[in-house]
């Protein structure tokens, strides 16, 4: 189901219904601190129903399969409902239901951030919600403090409230994109499918958004904490979401005494080894492989890559996490025994999208003579279960080895739609295209132009990575072959070059 699509680590647990939730005892301190009444808070927490359309990377010319699911959202401003990105990903229809009402309000996604799993939606007619309180965003809860998770988990139609204790504050992976890590807060309360997007409250304020749970443990859930929420809301103030920036380095912890000695570091000296610098990243003008990064924005980096912020020891990337494209950060480092310092400008890194799951985008493809060519990314990799060693290496090295500088797209021959014109070449499926008629392929648009020239050559000679024999496609009967293939396979359009 849709509600499980990005929550692969979730498991189902028991939940409480609204009547049980109201009877949960409140401490005198908590009761006094909660500003709006619980019943008012419930009204501001809405159930979200989504009808979605999932792109089909196996038959990219088709519209994709339809799916659906439910989640939770909550009101944070006038016609502003915050929820998870995975709740409304690939949405074709969004309906919002208020607590205690059966009316379904049509809504739309205004902003969506797949890299931090947050989205902002609005209803077409806000009049029914005008008098509801807006939930305010608080601060990160302290360890061992109590929080409440409100939402609409599966197993019932009514609101549910569970209570838990903050057990860990960490920097960890977000399952929605499978490529991004941010600050997370772990709580010992179940986060079930349908809870996603719901508020986690403490003293009447939002301290997190419920978004994923842990399959291997009972009553263990995770919430997106307020620094991530506030950054998302700040980012979209100009009307668009610009995504996260990144240092673009791979740090290596310096625990080993021998390694510290080699780099002339004392037992208590700060610093981590820069094991790799991604070409073209924010750090590439300043850092080199083998440098010792000692501080970020004057925050000393310890041997495990952590820094202190507001009394908490967090991953050093948390400094960058709170900045935006165009902001600067100061790096202190040691190179060849010499202390150095340089300020860099932070920026996004589009090639990293190769390893991030794509949502709300149509698959790109070319079909010519029954050959289906598609750009490589994690969606394609997973859909076709590509097992060619050379393709795996291209996928893994695309960012780390800077392949993106020469090849914006890596085209894969994913299928051969059978026709007499392409008989005997199905064995090439699963390989990456290197060149067409002697011209190295750099992106899908170039490939399309080469396969659809003004004057057709006698043959298309397609060279594949790792193959000694080129694929030969005759062009004499190409037009009639394309017609047969379109009819047989229901191909209404032979290409899509844009997402």
Written overview of the protein:
It comes from Rubritalea spongiae. InterPro entries: DEGP_PDZ, DEGP_PDZ_sf, PDZ, PDZ_sf, Peptidase_S1_PA, Peptidase_S1_PA_chymotrypsin, Peptidase_S1C. Keywords: Hydrolase, Protease, Serine protease, Signal. The protein has three domains: 2-238, Thrombin, subunit H, CATH 2.40.10.120; 249-345, Roll (Pdz3 Domain), CATH 2.30.42; 352-496, N-terminal domain of MutM-like DNA repair proteins (Alpha-Beta Barrel), CATH 3.20.190. The protein is built from eleven helices and 28 strands. It has helices spanning 18-22, 28-33, 38-43, 85-88, 226-235, 257-262, 317-321, 378-384, 389-400, 444-451, 478-489, and strands at 45-54, 65-77, 80-83, 91-97, 104-113, 118-123, 146-151, 160-174, 180-187, 199-202, 205-213, 221-225, 249-252, 272-277, 292-296, 299-300, 306-309, 312-315, 328-335, 338-345, 365-368, 371-375, 411-416, 433-436, 439-440, 459-464, 471-474, 495-496. The strands form six sheets. Strands 1-2-3-6-5-4 form a six-stranded antiparallel barrel. Strand 15 (292-296) and strand 16 form a beta hairpin. The radius of gyration is 26 Å and the shape is flat.
Which helices and strands occur, and which strands form pairs?
Layout: H1 18-22, H2 28-33, H3 38-43, E1 45-54, E2 65-77, E3 80-83, H4 85-88, E4 91-97, E5 104-113, E6 118-123, E7 146-151, E8 160-174, E9 180-187, E10 199-202, E11 205-213, E12 221-225, H5 226-235, E13 249-252, H6 257-262, E14 272-277, E15 292-296, E16 299-300, E17 306-309, E18 312-315, H7 317-321, E19 328-335, E20 338-345, E21 365-368, E22 371-375, H8 378-384, H9 389-400, E23 411-416, E24 433-436, E25 439-440, H10 444-451, E26 459-464, E27 471-474, H11 478-489, E28 495-496
Antiparallel strand pairs: 1-2, 1-4, 2-3, 3-6, 4-5, 5-6, 7-8, 7-10, 8-9, 9-12, 10-11, 11-12, 13-14, 14-15, 15-16, 15-19, 17-18, 19-20, 21-22, 21-28, 22-23, 24-25, 24-26, 26-27
């Amino acid at each position: 189901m849709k509600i499980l699509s990005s929550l692969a680590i979730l498991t189902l647990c028991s939940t409480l219904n609204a009547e049980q939730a109201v009877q949960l005892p409140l401490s005198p301190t908590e009761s006094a601190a909660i500003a709006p009444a619980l019943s008012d808070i419930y009204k501001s927490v809405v159930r979200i129903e989504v009808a979605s359309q999932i792109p089909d990377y196996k038959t990219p010319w088709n519209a994709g399969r339809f799916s659906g699911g439910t989640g939770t959202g909550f009101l944070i401003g006038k016609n502003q409902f915050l929820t998870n990105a995975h709740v409304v990903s690939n949405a074709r229809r969004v309906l919002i239901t208020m607590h205690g009402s059966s009316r379904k309000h049509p809504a739309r996604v205004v902003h969506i951030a797949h890299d931090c799993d947050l989205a902002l939606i609005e209803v077409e007619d806000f009049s029914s919600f005008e008098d509801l309180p807006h939930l305010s965003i608080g601060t990160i809860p302290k360890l061992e403090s109590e929080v409440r998770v409100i939402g609409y988990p599966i197993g019932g139609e009514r609101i549910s409230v569970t209570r838990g204790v903050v057990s860990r504050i960490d920097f960890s992976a977000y399952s929605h994109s499978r490529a991004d890590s941010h600050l997370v807060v772990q709580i010992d309360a179940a986060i079930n499918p349908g809870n996603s997007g719901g508020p986690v409250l403490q003293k009447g304020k939002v301290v997190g958004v419920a978004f994923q749970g842990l399959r291997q443990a009972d009553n263990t859930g995770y919430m997106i904490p307020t620094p991530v929420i506030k950054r998302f809301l700040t980012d979209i103030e100009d009307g668009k979401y610009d995504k996260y920036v990144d240092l673009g380095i791979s740090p290596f912890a310096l625990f080993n005494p021998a390694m510290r000695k080699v780099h002339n570091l004392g037992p208590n000296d700060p610093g981590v080894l820069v094991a790799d610098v991604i070409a073209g990243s924010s750090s590439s003008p300043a850092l080199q492989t083998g440098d010792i990064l000692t501080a970020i924005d004057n925050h000393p980096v310890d041997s495990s890559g952590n820094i202190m912020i507001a009394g908490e020891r967090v991953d050093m990337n948390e400094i960058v996490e709170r900045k935006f494209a165009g902001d600067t950060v100061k790096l202190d480092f040691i190179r060849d025994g010499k202390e150095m310092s340089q300020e860099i400008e932070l920026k996004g890194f589009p090639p990293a999208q190769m390893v991030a799951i794509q949502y709300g985008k149509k698959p790109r493809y070319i079909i010519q003579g029954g050959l289906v060519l598609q750009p490589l990314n994690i969606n394609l990799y997973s859909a076709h279960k590509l097992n060619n060693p050379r393709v795996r290496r291209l996928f893994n090295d695309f960012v780390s080895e800077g392949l993106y500088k020469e090849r914006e797209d890596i085209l894969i021959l994913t299928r051969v739609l059978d026709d007499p014109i392409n008989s005997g070449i199905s064995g090439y499926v699963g390989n990456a295209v290197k060149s067409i008629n002697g011209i190295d392929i750099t992106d899908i648009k170039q490939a399309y132009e080469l396969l659809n020239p003004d004057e057709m050559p006698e043959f298309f000679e397609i060279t594949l990575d790792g193959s000694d024999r080129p694929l030969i496609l005759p062009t004499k009967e190409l037009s009639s072959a394309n017609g047969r293939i379109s009819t047989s396979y229901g191909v209404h359009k032979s290409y899509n070059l844009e997402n």
